[in-house]
Amino acid sequence: MHTKSIKELSSLLRGKKISATELAQLFLARIRQSDLNAFLHVDEELTLAQAADADTRLEFDDATLLTGIPIAHKDIFVTQRWRSTAGSRMLENYVSPFDATVVSKLIDTGAVNLGKLNCDEFAMGSSNENSYFGPVKNPWDKAAVPGGSSGGSAAAVAARLTVGATGTDTGGSIRQPAALCGITGIKPTYGRVSRYGMIAYASSLDQGGPMAKTAEDCAILLNAMAGFDLRDSTSIQRRDEDFTQGLEKPLSGLRIGVPKEYFGAGLATDVEQAVRAALSEYEKLGAKLVEISLPNTSLSIPVYYVIAPAEASSNLSRFDGVRYGHRAKEYGDLQDMYRKTRAEGFGEEVQRRILVGTYVLCHGYYDAYYLQAQRIRRLIAQDFQLAFTQCDVIMGPVTPTVAWDIGDKADDPVANYLGDIYTLSTNLAGLPGMSIPCGFGQGEKNVNRPVGLQLTGNYFDEARLLNIAHKFQQATDWHLRAPEGATAGI
Amino acid sequence: MQWEVVIGLETHAQLSTNSKIFSGASTAFGAEPNTQACPVDLALPGVLPVMNRGAVEKAIQFGLAVGATIAPVSVFARKNYFYPDLPKGYQISQYEKPVVQGGRVSFMLERDGKQEIRSVQLTRAHLEEDAGKSLHEDYQGMSGIDLNRAGTPLLEIVTEPDMRSAAEAVAYARALHSLVTWLGICDGNMQEGSFRCDANVSVRPVGQKEFGTRCEIKNLNSFRFLEDAINIEVRRQIELIEDGGQVVQATRLYDPDNRETREMRSKEDAQDYRYFPDPDLPPLAISQEWIDRVKAVMPELPDAMRERFVRDYGLPEYDAAVLTQSKAMADYFEVLVVAIGKEQAKQGANWLMGDVSSTLNREGVEIADAPVSAAQLALLLKRIADGTISNKIAKEVFAAMWEAKSDDTNAADNIIDEKGLKQISDSGALEKIIDEVLAANQKSVDEFRAGKEKAFNALVGQVMKATKGKGNPAQVNELLKSKLAG
Q1: Does B62 lie in the same domain as B146?
Q2: Which letter, b or e, does each residue of B445-481 get, where b requires 16 or more Cβ atoms within 10 Å of its Cβ?
Q3: What pTM was estimated for this model as a whole?
Q4: Best to test chain B binding among A198, A315, A336 (most B CBs inside 10 Å)
C-alpha cells in the first residue's frame, strides 16, 4: 500500500477499498518504526483528525486526487498546529499562528499531514547534518547522509514513510537530496509557488516544491502547491496550469542540451556513467543530444555564497529573542541579550553564513562583493537563455558524487559548498529544475547509493520538465527501486 | 566674526492610510498596545511584506504638488539594525532610488518687516515604514514594546541645505505642513508624531563657500521646538568655534526643559546599516497612467487656487494668498462666495480675514470648527447687501451668532429679529426722528446754514444716535440734506 502512487491510492480511497484514516494509520505506524530521524514532530491525533475530515469528503464525493493522501512538510513551512522549528534551537518550541500558503492549499485539497520533516537549520546545508535535532540517515545506507537541506523530506519519501513531501530549494535543496535518496523532486520557476509562510533563508532564491516517488506524483502535488498569492509580492500572476495534462507527450525531436562544464574534472565516474546511460535512454526515446556551454558555471559557487548569506544575514535578524523563540536565560544589557541569544540559538553553519553575509553587505565591501555577485548572476541567467536557443531542456548530473558518509565533510564547509556546483546556477537564474533517479553508484564505500539526473527547463516550463521526466520513468524502473525495508512491511 | 547658519530639514510625514504600508493592520492611533500588529508587523517567521498602493499614491500626490520627478522605477531597501522596537531587525525604506526626486516648496518669509517669497529645493522624498515604540516607564527594570506603530507608512521629505535661519526653517516646515494637510495625505498631528522634523544644522563664516561640520537634531515635534532647538544649536556651535573648539559631526537630542541639545551618538559610532535592495519586494513601477489617475483626483493646489481667486473673484494677490494658506480656509471661502455671489467676493474676503480670523485666533479655534458656518455667514453678508443692517450692526450680529453656536442657517435673521437690529429704512419714521433732531439742535442747523459743512456730520451723528445705529446711513444723509435745503 505504502509503495503505491497517488493516483493508485486515490482510486482505492474513492473506491472505498481503504479509508483515509486507515491509510494515515498505516503511515504513522511506519514512521513510529523508523529510525531515520526524518520527522521532527508527529502528532497522531492531529493527523487522524485530518484523515477523518478526508473520509467525510470522500463519503460526500467532494474529493480531489489528493484527498486522504498522506504527505508531510519540511519544517521550513510554518503550520498552525504542528511546531515549526526550521531545524533550529532558535525555534525549538515555536508554533505559528497561521499556516503557510502551501500548507493551507494542500489542506484545501484534503491531503493529510503526517507531520514535520527534519532539515538543515534554516535550510542551510547539503547533508542535513546542520539540524539542531540531529542528522537524518539515508534509507539506502544509514551511514550515509540523505543530502540537504530537504534531507528529511527525501529520506521519508525514499523510505516510504510518506507518499509525498514538500521541500524548499535555495541552491539545490530539493534536487540534491532527491538525487542522493533516489526519489523525484522539482524546484519550480522562482515565483511559481508562494513563499508566504516559508521561513526565509535567501528570499531571491528560495522556492518551494514537491518531492515524491514519481514525476506524475510531483505533477499532482505541484498542481496543489503552485499559484499566485497576494501575500507574496514575488509570486507570479499567471493562469493556473494542470501539470498532469502533458505528461504523456512523446519526446521525439526533443533537443537535450548537455553542458560540457557539467562533465569535467570533479565529476565521479560512477555518477557520470549513470547520467550518460540515462542520456542514451533519452536518445532511444527519440531525443537528440546537443552539446552546449554554460561558461559561468564555476562562478555560481562564489556568487551564491555571497548573495545567499547576504540575504540570510538580514532575514535572520528577526530572531533576536525579543518577541518569540529562544532567549538566553541570563544576560546583562540588551546587546548582551542579543549576543547570547543568537550565539545559543543558531548553529555553527547559520552563524558562519550570517557573518559572511554581514561582511559582504558592509559599507566598503558591498560593491566588491554583493553588487559584483549580482552582475555575475545576470551573466549566468544570460548563459541559460543562450543555451535555450539551442535546446529544449538541459540535462546533467545533480551532484558530483553519490551520498557521502555522515561526518565525512562535517568539518569542511568548503567541500560541502563545492558539492552544490551543478544546482546553484538554476536558482541564481530562477529557472525550474528537477532531479529524477537514474541509477546507482558505488562511491568509495562499494555500496549502492542512488544517482540523480538533473533536468533544467526554461522559465515556466515545469509541465514540459514533468513530461520529459515521466516518459523516462515509463521506460525505466529506477524510480521504483526502494531501499531495503521500504517495500517490506504492512 | 559674522556667522552664516545653514539648515537642511528631514521631515517624517505619516501618510494617512487606513492600513499599514506592508500589512493589512490598522494604523489608527491610540489603541491598546500591540492590538494593531498582525503577524507581518510582528515579523513572525514566514511573513512577507506587500506594498500598500494607497501609500504610493499619497507619495505621488506629494511629488506632483512640489513639481518633483516621480521615479518610474524606485526600489525598496533594507536598513539593517537591531533594536527591540524594530521587529524584523531591518526597516524597509528607500535608499538609492526614492519614489520622489527633486521638487520645491515655496513660502512667505518676513524679513525686515517685509514679506518675501522664499523657496527651498527638495532633494527627495521616499517611502518607508515606522518602527514601534519602546516604553521604559511602568515596567520595573524592564522595557515594554508597543508595535502598533510598527509598519505605519511614512514619507520622509529631505531638503537641500537651503535655509539660513531658524525662522526660515520654521516657515518652510509650516508651508510643508500646510501642503501635506492640504493634500490630505497626512493629518499633520504633531503631538501624535504624524509630522516630525530632524534638523541638520551647521555654521560658517559669512562668505565661506564650504559648509561647516553639521549636527543633526532628531525628532522635533513642534514648530516652537524646531525653532528653539536650531537657535540653541547654532549658539552652541558658534560659541564652540569662537572658543577655539571644533564641531564634531553627531546626532543630537533637543531637551526642551533644559533648553539644550545633547549628543546621542557621534559619527564614529555611526552604524553601518548595510542597505541592500529588499528581495521580498519587486522594484516599485509607476506608470504615467497611474500618475494621471492620481492627478485626476488630486485637490486643487494652493498656488493654482490663489491664481484662480485673483482671476475669477477679482481678489487682490494678498487676499488670495492669505485665504489659500489652508485648505479649510479656502474651502470656507469658496462656499461663502458661491452663496453671496462673485460680486461680493471682496466683501467676503474682508470678513474672513477680519472678524472671522480675529475671532478664531482669539478663541484658538480652527476654521473647520468655527461655530459660524460659511452658509450662515453668507446670510449675514446678504443682509448687509440688501440694506437690512449696516456693516457695523453686522459685526454685533456676527458676535452673537458665534456665541449662539446655532446650526440654523437662518441664524443671522433670527438674531436681527430677536434683538430688533433691523435698519430703519422707512422714510416716514426717519423723517419724524430727523425733525426731532433738527428741532433739538438748532445751533448746528444755524452753523450749517452759515456754511459750516462739519455741522452736517454732527447732525448725522445725532440722527444715528437717536436710531440706536439702525438708521439706514444713505437714507439718513439724503433726508437730512433735503430737510436742511428746504
Answers
A1: yes
A2: bebbeeeeeebbeebbebbbebbebbbbbebbeebbe
A3: 0.89
A4: A315
- End of a domain among B395, B419, B443? B419
Q: Are A123 and A92 in contact (CB under 8 A)?
A: no
Are residues B158 and B28 part of one domain? yes
**Taking CB atoms and an 8 Å cutoff, what residues of chain A touch B90?**
314, 317
Residues linked to residue B201 through DSSP beta bridges, in sequence order:
B7, B215
Q: Which of B419, B442, B474 is the last residue of a domain?
A: B419
Could you give all domains of chain A from N- to C-terminal order, each with its CATH number?
Answer: 6-256+389-480 (3.90.1300.10)
Active site residue A173: yes
Residues of B in contact with A202 (CB under 8 A): 279
Chain B residues close to A354, C-beta within 8 Å:
none
Closest CA to A361 of A317, A327, A320: A317
- Nearest chain B residue (CA) to A361: B274
Show which residues on chain B lie within 8 Å of chain A, measured between beta carbons.
39, 42-51, 78, 80, 82, 84, 87-90, 145, 272, 274-276, 279-282
In 3D space, the residue among A98, A119, A101, A100 whose CA is nearest the CA of residue A41 turns out to be A119
A149 catalytic? Reply is yes
Does B176 lie in the same domain as B74?
A: yes
Chain A residues with CB under 8 Å of B87 CB are 318, 322-323
Residue B433 belongs to what domain range? 427-485
Size of the A and B interface in Cβ pairs below 8 Å: 96
Residue A310 in contact with partner chain B when CB distance is under 8 A: yes
pLDDT tens-place values along chain A, 490 residues long: 888 999 999 999 999 999 999 999 999 999 999 999 999 999 999 999 999 999 999 999 889 999 999 999 999 999 999 999 999 999 999 999 999 999 999 999 999 999 999 999 999 999 999 999 999 999 999 999 999 999 999 999 999 999 999 999 999 999 999 999 999 999 999 999 999 999 999 999 999 999 999 999 999 999 999 999 999 999 999 998 999 999 999 999 999 999 999 998 899 999 999 999 999 999 999 999 999 999 999 999 999 999 999 999 999 999 999 999 999 999 999 999 999 999 999 999 999 999 999 999 999 999 999 999 999 999 999 999 999 999 999 999 999 999 999 999 888 888 888 889 999 999 999 999 999 999 999 866 667 899 999 999 999 999 999 999 999 999 999 999 999 877 665 4
How many domains would you assign to chain B? 3
Q: Exposed (0-12), middle (13-18) or buried (19+): which is A426, by Cβ within 10 Å?
A: buried
Residues B110 and B197 in one domain: yes
Q: Which of B278, B284, B352 is closest to B313 using CA atoms?
A: B352
